[in-house]
Each structure stands twice: as structure tokens, then as C-alpha cells.
Specification:
about 525 residues; alpha/beta; TIM Barrel; Immunoglobulin-like; 8-stranded parallel sheet; 4-stranded antiparallel sheet; Glyco_hydro_29_N; GH; EC 3.2.1.51; signal; alpha-L-fucosidase
């Protein structure tokens, strides 16, 4: 995922009181969202030009997330491509068919797992600031020293059945796993490059193959994350600047030097071909990341030629070279109003890191995670929620617990999330301030956390965070309501509906049926 120089953060973030004030208010949300982060260990790109959340919305959390990627959905795109992509040539009907399952899924599992799980955030006996999977870059670990981790990687406790089963029990509909992250280590059997889990470790197994088999058994979609641009162990692979790494390459070890086009030709593109050919119907998603200036339109076009051979494939907006892909990818935050007319997916962590980091115990509550999901669905997006397995292959217990709790809520209330459309209302998410401005001089978005809404064919769902008994009131209801009940009420006891001009009132029982979110169903004709 994204990272940036801390000096840049200081200039952009600390110099802007408006941004810092807004970020301090990020913890102001429903229920348990009142705590603030007492210490900030900045290791990622920190809020676009100061604080991207001030303009775009927020990720709710008990403690403030201080690293959110700058570009994400803002990666520059162009309509003119040297190699036309599927998005350039398909009809609207074809795109709707291709994207249908993704639009209905709403909830997916991100898995960041690799060699970085061995040091787990520590090097030479010291904690390395930042996110776990960036430890090689952050600690300037030489290529040879990092590659020496591979013989120590033997995750014998890994169980594809358990991980896919965990996603299933959480109510997730798809999985995206890191096939190769920026460290260049392939978590699959690659003939294109020997630095992979089958050839370079005592494990000798392909976890992607095992996960693919389990996804078929458990009716789960599967996608692969692939770092196409950054590769810190392959000669010629790109690197983002951190610390004192110097331009133009930002490498810290001569072993990293080489030709970027040659790296693409000999490693990245051959590995992408392997991933697209060796796992049957999978992947259904390719999740690119961190494009640099090295990824020219011409070089990106060489990758697009490969992608075009798989016309049902979905891929995101992080390839580079001006290609917009299929999905916007806000990272660690939820845009204030979604992206009308575009498919999008907020990718977020449960704690502060993507790859496993033993010192990061700052886990969000189930309440936070569920309300993130509801908020995202109400704006027409998907929630890609991350787990970071340990070097043993096991998923940390706090992540398992939270996912299982989310699954219990979705088992009762999932009808209000899956295959729904965005809210018919909008104002319930909050509003733009008439007095406060963001860094760009635009009105700041002030969220509200009383309720959200999603839309079905003949139903409107109201997810109530604050219980408004004895009556839930709508000033305006654009559909004719024929009845109402609470989704968690197995008897579906009718609730009294009283029309009030263009709006309506619904009589509610004294207590909610769920402490996090009780769903009111309005039947419509």
C-alpha cells in the first residue's frame, strides 16, 4: 500500500491547523468512537495534501488513522491509451454484466501475508516505525538480508479451509490476497522468478492454489493483489521514497539497480501471466498498487495486453500509465458521498497495519467495523477489510473475533447490505459546513452518525445507530410505503406507519434489537 516521506507529511499536515483540527475530530463518531489517538507514528502518506478526509469523508475508528494514501482514487487517468483496455471498448450492458457480482457483494476480505510477517515490525531488536509490510523499505534492509528470511518461512499452521471459512462466516463474498507485495516475494509457485514460497522456503506449498481450491468449495470469489511497479528485491523494480533514500530510483542497495522495462519484461509480466493462467477461473480481480512515473502509458499498455485476454476480469485504478481501471480505491477512509457513476471499494485495516506487526494492538471495535460497512454500502461502495496472518499462517485472534461478530450481525441483517443500491436520501450521512473550509478552500464535510439507508427493489432499509424511539421520522419519503417492520424481528411484527405530508413517522419499540445497528424495513410499492 502507499507510503511517503515523513518530512513531506510534516510540511503538509502539521502546517495546516484546519487539517489537524479535522483529523482530531475523526474519532468523534457513534458509540465508542470518542477516544483519540494519543501518539501518532506516521508511516504512510498522511491525508492528501494535509488531510484527504477533510474533503472526502472519513474512516470511523476508535483511534484516528493517521496514514491514508494520497492518490488512491485520485491516480491520474486518461481517455487516450496506446493499447485500448476492456473499459475502453465494452458497451454499458457488457460492463454491467461484468461488474454485477462485485456490485452485489459489498464485503470482501483483503489478506496481506508474506515474508514481512517474520520480523513482524521489528529489525535488529528494534521496532521499525510504520506498517508491517513496508519494513524492508523503512529499515533500509539490504536485498541479501531480506532474502535470507525466506529459508525461515515455514507457515505450517496455515489452513486455506480455515481462512476461507473465516471469510464465509464473516459474511464476506470475495477474497483478495497478496500474490506479490512490494518486497518482491511471490506467495505462489512461480517459474518466472525463484524468489517465491515454493522454491525459496521449506514450506514448498502454493497457498494461492490451496485458497483457490477452498474458494471453489465454499463458493467464494478470489482475486490477487500484485505489486506491478514497486519491487525492492528485483533489479530495476521501482521504489517509493522514504527516509534518506535518494532520487532518481530511491533505492538503498546497489543490488536493486537495473532497468525497469527489463524488470517488467522478465518478472512482473511473466508472473502476471502465471497468475491469470494457473488457477482456473480465478482470479476474478487483479488488484494493482502504487504506480510510479516509471509506469509509462506504453509500458502499462504491455500489461493491458495481458489483461485483455481475460475479458471478465475486474481490475482497479492503480495500474498507472493513465488507465482508470474499473474501481476507485479509497484507502483507510470512506468518501463523503461515494463516487456516483463509478464502482468503488474502500480498503481498510482492522488495526493500523496491513501486514502482521506484533506491536500493533490498536484494533477497531466490531461496532466501528460494522458501521463502516453500513456507511460504505449506503453510498454504493464495497468494503475490503484486511487481515494480516502471522508467520505461522494463523490469523491473529482479535481479527478472527471481530470477523465472526460481524458475521453474526450480517446473518440477521445482511439483506440490508448485499445487492442493495445507495440511499434515496443522503443528508443522513452528514453535510458540508457553511463556515469551516478544508485546505483547498472548499466546505468541510461534517459527518452525522444517527442512521444510514440502503435501497432494495421493493424495500428501503434504515440502519439505526441511535435509537429514536418512540418514533422514527422522515421529512421526505420518495416511495409509497405500505408497511414496516424490524429486520431482526423473526415474527416481522408490523409497525405503525403514519404519513406526514411528504414524509412519515414509524412507531418503534422502546429498545433496539441490536446495540450496534437495528435495521428498520420500509416496504414500498
Amino acid at each position: 500500500m502507499f507510503i511517503a516521506d515523513d518530512t513531506l507529511f510534516a510540511k503538509l499536515f502539521l502546517s495546516d491547523p484546519g487539517a489537524t483540527n479535522f483529523c482530531g475530530a475523526l474519532a468523534d463518531g457513534p458509540g465508542s468512537f470518542q477516544k483519540r489517538r494519543e501518539s501518532m507514528k506516521v508511516s504512510r502518506r498522511a491525508f492528501s495534501k494535509g488531510c484527504v478526509l477533510a474533503a472526502s469523508g472519513l474512516a470511523i475508528g476508535e483511534k484516528m488513522q493517521v496514514w491514508a494514501q494520497v492518490q488512491g482514487e485520485h491516480i491520474q487517468a486518461s481517455d487516450a491509451h496506446p493499447v485500448p483496455a476492456i473499459q475502453d471498448t465494452e458497451t454499458a450492458a457488457q460492463k454491467n454484466e461484468r461488474m454485477q457480482w462485485f456490485r452485489e457483494a459489498r464485503f470482501g476480505m483483503f489478506i496481506h501475508w508474506g515474508l514481512y510477517a517474520i520480523p513482524a515490525g521489528r529489525w535488529d531488536g528494534k521496532e521499525v516505525p510504520g506498517i508491517g509490510e513496508w519494513i524492508m523499505n523503512r529499515a533500509s534492509i539490504p536485498v541479501a538480508d531480506y532474502k535470507a528470511l525466506a529459508p525461515k518461512f515455514n507457515p505450517t499452521s496455515f489452513s486455506a479451509a480455515e481462512i476461507v471459512g473465516l471469510a464465509k462466516s464473516a459474511g464476506m463474498k470475495y477474497i483478495v490476497i497478496t500474490a506479490k507485495h512490494h518486497d518482491g516475494f511471490a506467495m505462489f509457485d512461480s517459474k518466472a522468478n525463484p524468489f517465491n514460497i515454493v522454491q525459496a522456503t521449506p514450506f514448498k506449498r502454493d497457498p494461492l492454489k490451496e485458497i483457490a481450491e477452498e474458494c471453489r468449495k465454499q463458493n467464494m470469489k478470489l482475486g490477487f493483489y500484485y505489486s506491478q511497479d514497486q519491487d525492492w528485491t528485483a533489479p530495476g523494480g521501482a521504489a517509493y521514497k522514504t527516509g534518506d533514500h535518494q532520487p532518481p530510483t530511491y533505492h538503498w542497495d546497489p543490488a536493486q539497480n537495473g532497468s525497469f522495462p527489463e524488470y517488467l519484461r522478465t518478472k512482473a509480466i511473466p508472473q502476471m501471466k502465471e497468475l491469470l493462467a494457473n488457477y482456473g477461473d480465478y482470479p476474478v480481480i487483479v488488484w494493482f498498487d502504487t504506480p510510479t512515473k516509471d509506469m509509462t502509458p506504453e509500458l502499462a499498455g504491455e500489461i493491458v495486453k495481458v489483461l485483455n485476454e481475460h475479458p471478465k476480469l475486474i481490475w482497479n485504478n492503480r495500474l498507472g500509465g493513465g488507465y482508470k481501471g474499473d474501481t476507485e480505491t479509497p484507502e483507510q477512509y470512506i468518501p463523503a458521498q461515494g463516487y456516483p457513476g463509478r464502482d468503488w471499494e474502500s480498503c481498510m485495516t482492522m488495526n493500523d497495519t496491513w501486514g502482521y506487526k506484533q506491536d500493533d494492538t490498536n484494533f477497531k471495535s466490531t461496532e466501528t467495523l460494522l458501521r463502516n460497512l453500513i456507511d460504505i454500502a449506503s453510498k454504493g461502495g464495497n468494503y475490503l477489510l484486511n487481515i494480516g496472518p502471522m508467520a505461522t499462517g494463523e490469523v491473529p485472534a482479535p481479527e478472527v473475533d471481530r470477523l465472526q461478530q460481524m458475521g453474526k450481525w450480517l446473518a440477521v441483517n445482511g439483506e440490508s447490505i448485499y445487492a442493495t443500491q445507495p440511499t434515496l436520501f443522503g443528508a443522513e450521512a452528514g453535510s458540508f459546513s457553511t463556515t469551516e473550509m478544508d485546505k483547498n478552500g472548499k466546505p468541510k464535510f461534517i459527518p452525522s452518525w444517527k442512521w444510514r439507508s440502503t435501497t432494495g427493489v421493493d424495500k428501503v432499509y434504515i440502519q439505526l445507530f441511535e435509537w429514536p424511539a418512540p418514533v422514527f421520522h422522515l421529512d421526505k419519503m420518495p416511495r409509497h410505503v405500505t408497511g414496516a417492520y424490524l429486520l431482526a424481528d423473526k415474527a416481522r411484527t408490523p409497525l405503525k406507519v403514519t404519513k406526514t405530508g411528504n414524509g412519515l413517522d414509524v412507531a418503534l419499540p422502546e429498545q433496539p434489537l441490536d446495540p450496534i445497528a437495528t435495521v428498520l424495513v420500509l416496504q414500498t410499492a
